[in-house]
Amino acid sequence: MANEPLILHLDTDQAERWFGNLVRRGSDLSGLMAQIGEDLTESTQARFDTGVGPDGIAWQPLADGSGRTPLNDTRRTRDGIHPLSGVDWVEIRADSKQARWHQEGTPPYVIEAKNGKALYWPGMQMRTSKSGKEGPAFVRKVNHPGLPARPFMGVSEEDGDAIEQLAVAWLELDADPSNLGPA
Fold first, then answer.
1. How many C-beta atoms lie closer than 10 Å to residue 83's C-beta?
2. Are strands 81-85 and 109-112 parallel, antiparallel or unpaired?
3. Would you say 74 and 173 are in contact if contact means Cβ atoms under 8 Å apart?
4. What is the pLDDT of residues 5-30, one digit of tens each?
5. Is there a contact between 70 and 51 (Cβ–Cβ < 8 Å)?
6. Considering only CA atoms, which of 96, 102, 112, 94 is closest in space to residue 147?
7. CB distance 30 to 86 below 8 Å
8. Which end of the chain is flanked by fewer CB atoms within 10 Å, N or C?
9. What is the pLDDT of residues 135-152, one digit of tens each?
10. Is 71 exposed, middle or buried (0-12, 13-18, 19+ CB in 10 A)?
11. In 3D, which of 10, 26, 8 has the Cα closest to residue 18?
């Protein structure tokens, strides 16, 4: 008995089924990519309520000292964030033209009135005309101090953890694929 070899007979059918399932599920990740896109969109839009970037750093407060959360007056930038995805990719896009300015910030710049007109904004300084009538102090140009960066796009640590959990659930070998979208 001591001289007889130990022989193990393995049934590889289960392992082959698992690898086959893994290859099938990994060949079309469109359902997973769409879910990641939706989750990242929600997470990105939530930053407009908290005023905290994906790096965990709070946005610089508004210069008017109002205490309001920046980028929330019209919600145009927030509502213009949409996911796009395909078989093996996902992206989040911000449609508003101001999105890049707020994401990256701007250096100081000059705002000039178009077509020789004047600039006006609510709360601007008033002046008295020669006739004694008081009215807005219209100007032809203004030196804007620039915008601080208030990053809202990006993958936070929590986003990364959520993506990992989604990917693991998507590739679970014994999971019911009908519960996870197209596979």
1. 19
2. unpaired
3. no
4. 888 777 788 778 878 877 887 788 99
5. yes
6. 102
7. yes
8. N
9. 887 888 889 899 999 999
10. buried
11. 26
